[in-house]
Amino acid sequence: MNVTKRYPIKTVAQKTGLSTHVIRAWEKRYQVIEPLRTETNRRLYSEEDIYRLTLLKKAIKSGHTISSICDLDINSLKELVAEGSDYKDNSRVEENSNRSVEYHFEQCLNAIRNFDAAQFEEALLRASVELTQPVLIKSIILPIISSIGEQWKDGSLRVMHEHLATAVLKPFLHNLRISYRSSPNAPSIIVATPIGQIHELGALITALVAASEGWQVIYLGPNLPAEEIVSAINIKKADLVLLSIVYPANDPYLKLELEKLRNLLPSSVKIIIGGRVSESYQEIIDDIGALQINDLDTFREFLESRHQ
Question: Where is mean pLDDT largest: 22-31, 50-59, 256-265?
């Protein structure tokens, strides 16, 4: 009997180059494929599913949107991809890549200006297909967050635009993070923001970076008292904690919280502090022996040096 071979989503991600988050999002929103479900609700994909996903990715790279091609059959997708390959110039790959980053940035920003959450999410999904994760974060997500802040200050955007962008980015970053699977023996890192710090996008981004570097990430979210952070560290036996500090730059209680955290933690636990206003707390950061890192490349290098 000829039994169709089926693959788990992790294998499909490896074969197609798509993240598991993108695969699930396309499946749920656009019904581009319908995987087999086991009794335990585990997705299993066929060779045809993998081929279709691969064609969709290639078509998107040549300029199409997922919403415009999601209903096409295999043959139509093959024709679309073939048409796109006719005018590719390999000598211009780098130039096209640079244009691609600018294009994705403008698509995301326009969606926010239009106050269109669905359009913003689709723009992010498309960018995550065409760009590597470091480029996605450094050239799309961080500039978007910065641009929203600047345009809010000059009156171009309203608070509602910032809230809409945050509401879309939070689950997007979370889903990207959980698509990474770390080894059971991988070191653990606790990521949070201290009490009084309610902005968490920076913490979510660093959690994603740590997950992509193979760490077991325990993300605790914003506004957490020192005692709760310490309890989590003790339970997970983590030797690294990262705190994001974004606003305000002069919180008198933050110094007390950081001192408390250091006093309650074993000396073997390293504290990393980053965020937009972390430099305003340089004195207390030095006093507690914490490490200040505000650059993602430096953070990746630090994680790599600890994970050897």
Answer: 256-265
Degrees, nearest 5: CA angle 300-214-201 = 60
User: How many domains does one find in the chain?
Assistant: 3
C-alpha angle 41-47-53 in degrees, rounded to nearest 5: 85
The total of other beta-carbon atoms located within 10 Å of residue 16's CB is 22
**Sheet with 188-194, side-by-side order of all strands:** 216-224, 188-194, 240-244, 270-274, 291-292
Assess if residue 1 is contained within a domain: no
Average pLDDT value for residue range 65-85: 84
In the beta sheet, which residues pair with residue 273?
A: 243, 292
Q: Is the dihedral of CA 115, 121, 124, 126 positive or negative?
A: negative
Q: How far is CA 220 from CA 161, 203, 242, 266, in A?
A: 25, 9, 11, 20
How many CB atoms sit inside 10 A of residue 113's CB? Answer: 14
Is 70 exceeded by the pLDDT of residue 308? no
Is residue 90 pLDDT above 80, yes or no?
Answer: no
Domain span at 171: 90-177
Q: Percent of the chain scored above 90 by pLDDT?
A: 55
pTM of the entire predicted model: 0.75
Give residue 99's pLDDT.
56
Query: How far apart are alpha carbons 145 and 301 in whole angstroms?
Result: 24
Same domain, 69 and 103: no
